[in-house]
Amino acid sequence: MDTLPTTSTAKRGGRSKVPQTSKPSLLLAFCSCVAWLYVAGRLWQDAENRNLLASLLKKNSAQRPKVLTVEDKLVVLGCRDLEKRIVETEMELTLAKSQGYLKGQRQQTASSDRRLLAVIGVYTGFGSHLKRNVFRGSWMPRGDALKKLEERGVVIRFVLGRSPNRGDSLDRNIDNENRSTKDFLILENHEEAQEELPKKAKIFFSTAVKNWDADFYVKVDDSIDIDLEGLIKLLEHRRGQDGAYIGCMKSGDVISEEGKPWYEPDWWKFGDEKSYFRHASGSLVILSKNLAQYININSVSLKTYAYDDTSIGSWMMGIQSTYIDDSRLCCGSTTQGDIPILLFLQLLLFVIEAVENENVFL
């Protein structure tokens, strides 16, 4: 039987060769194995870390409130100073409420019997030396008489700010006059200027309520004369009345044309009719203690208008103040049986102003 031919590559009596692996290949394989072990280890470690963090978060979430408190937010934002200011403001408001700036709340202290009846602030200016002397010689006591009046519970001071050029001759002259007469309330934080009168009202009431504990705080213009005894009787009659806003109440048109007398830059806020709200005339304004305290506490946020009387009236609109319209406080007007408390000094003041305009350093 025929068979297929075969071929054999192996020679009879010979050996087959085994392929040999090179050293670089072994080294590469070893490095790959090590790298794989390193990556696997890191992946395992990251998985462990994630599990640990997840367990910690789960544990903390059960203990922490879902909604952060104000304190937590302040800590996160780093607003420690803001937190301190908030706490201080809350304490001031609590103190103010306890002292009775809200209607129906009055301070009950052992010193209440020694409270003054009124603090009267008479607006004045740097060039009004002769005017002040006229007042000191007419209705306003001076020297020992001023001290005796304070013993009765009435404090009277000329109210003045500081010069725009702080420390100049205007300031020095006022300081010298005050050392002699001791009848000034100098508003250190106020710069004296005609357009700053509304701000002067805020600072006056704030400063007065800080310096004296009185039932009433009175703002008086330097263009009027006062029946002081009549004013004291009026205040004694109203003593103990919270929220009293007393004066010659009026209203009037808002002047919207720039350049005209009594122009109001914020005229557009007063509606289509452009009429002022009811307010006490600027010649004399009386506020009870709790209203003056309200101005002191909120002075930073209170809006001022072009004139001090309308500004004060706007502050009184938003709180529980009692409007008391007293015709005796209307300059030059009387009703049957009433004696006016205020009188204009038109002719005399005209002469004084003419003289002082010649030399404002008198």
UniProtKB/TrEMBL annotation:
It is an enzyme of class 2 (transferase). Residues 1-20 are annotated as: Disordered. It is a single-pass type II membrane protein. Gene3D superfamilies: 3.90.550.50. Pathway: Protein modification; protein glycosylation. GO terms for molecular function: hydroxyproline O-galactosyltransferase activity. It comes from the Eukaryota. The keyword Hydrolase does not apply. Pfam families: DUF4094, Galactosyl_T. This is Hexosyltransferase. Its EC number is 2.4.1.-. Residues 22-99 form the DUF4094 domain. The keyword Nucleotide-binding does not apply. Residues 1-10 have a biased composition (Polar residues). One of its GO terms (cellular component) is Golgi membrane. Its cofactor is Mn(2+). InterPro entries: DUF4094, Glyco_trans_31. Keywords: Glycosyltransferase, Golgi apparatus, Manganese, Membrane, Signal-anchor, Transferase, Transmembrane, Transmembrane helix. Possesses hydroxyproline O-galactosyltransferase activity. Transfers galactose from UDP-galactose to hydroxyproline residues in the arabinogalactan proteins (AGPs). Is specific for AGPs containing non-contiguous peptidyl hydroxyproline residues. The addition of galactose onto the peptidyl hydroxyproline residues in AGP core proteins represents the first committed step in arabinogalactan polysaccharide addition. AGP glycans play essential roles in both vegetative and reproductive plant growth. GO terms for biological process: arabinogalactan protein metabolic process. Belongs to the glycosyltransferase 31 family.
